[in-house]
Amino acid sequence: MDKMIRVDKNYKRWIEEVSKRFRKSQIKAALKVNDEMLRFYWSLGCDMERIKENYEWGAHFYSQISKDIQKMLPDVKSFSSRNLLYMHQFYRMYPDAVITPQSGAQLHNDIWEGVFGIPWGHHKLILDKCKDDQSRALFFVSKILENNWSRSVLLDFLETDLYERQGKAITNFAQTLPGIQGDLAQAITKDPYNFDFLTLHEKYNEKELKDALIDKVQSFLLELGTGFAYLGREIRIKVGKKEKFIDLLFYNTRVRCYVVVEVKSGEFESTNMGQLGTYVVAVNHQIKTEHDNPTIGLIVCKGMDKVEAQYALEASTQPLGVSSYVLSKLVPERFKGSLPSIEEIEEELSDNKCNR
Q1: What does each C-alpha distance from 201 to 204, 212, 306, 337, 352 come to in angstroms?
Q2: At residue 149, what are phi and psi to the nearest 5 degrees?
Q3: 3-state SS class at 203
Q4: Beta-ladder partners of 236
Q5: In angstroms, rounded to a whole number, what is the distance separating the alpha carbons of residues 143 and 126?
Q6: What distance lies between CA 112 and its chain's CA centroid?
Q7: Could you report the per-residue pLDDT of 56-65, keeping only the tens digit for each?
Q8: What sign has the CA pseudo-torsion 261, 264, 265, 270?
Q9: pTM, to two decimals
Q10: Beta-carbon count within 10 A of 291 CB
Q11: Tally of CB atoms within 10 A around 355
């Protein structure tokens, strides 16, 4: 009996292992198929670039090729005129991703390999939104590989100017952190932060802004970027005999440090820096371990005078930064009172259900 139980357990483990191996092989096969398909699309785009100079089909260039290929491959749906246009754009966006077939050589570069590592649907969005800007396109390719973005997430970031905002906070990281760490810390910042996932009334205050950010903490983390983990709000620390409360505390796994974030619903004031610097030092003394890099601080405010912000940063020995935020979904104050509350909506739904 014991032997049968042991055999059953071993058999069950083997079945689980087989299923895991199969899933892994499926993923590898899918990635290989995607890679081969994109390389084919790239080469077809390269061919179209070459032959377009020799044929005067004008606006009918892609539709003519589509008809002729589909005669030869009637069961294949990939050769619509629209998809052929994308293939041509794909080649033109990344002409150096693979050296021309005549040379028989291929570039072995991580970023070019990455181009062939993301789905075709993602590429079409990038081609639509980035036009001829290869640097911007490659930025989003690297972000997809880094974060495993879905198409909907990619579209959100394509439409919020992430490329233009990334790493743009005003900081003193270059002066207060070692070279590589300073570069990494700068890279995880943005300016401005886009809070369009929030809806607030026009005369919102600081508490309402912080409440709304935490209510939408997943969207907030997505906007903050790669590697941010939310640790809490109003984190209590003791400075001498006084209690202080940090607005928001995060940990960033890429920079391996705590990040203190102070949110201000008004304009930046240089006096904010002293408070933020105190919180950063307190976290270093009370929370940070020997395995963590120095804590950094970030003020996110409604707006700022950049000269004032730069002067305030130069006066601090702690690694601090200042960013602004944008928020477009504001409900006019006069409509605030007429909007139903959650409780009122739930009550009405309940009454409707009872009346059926």
Answers
A1: 6, 11, 27, 10, 29
A2: -65, 140
A3: coil
A4: 245
A5: 12
A6: 20
A7: 666 688 888 8
A8: negative
A9: 0.72
A10: 6
A11: 6
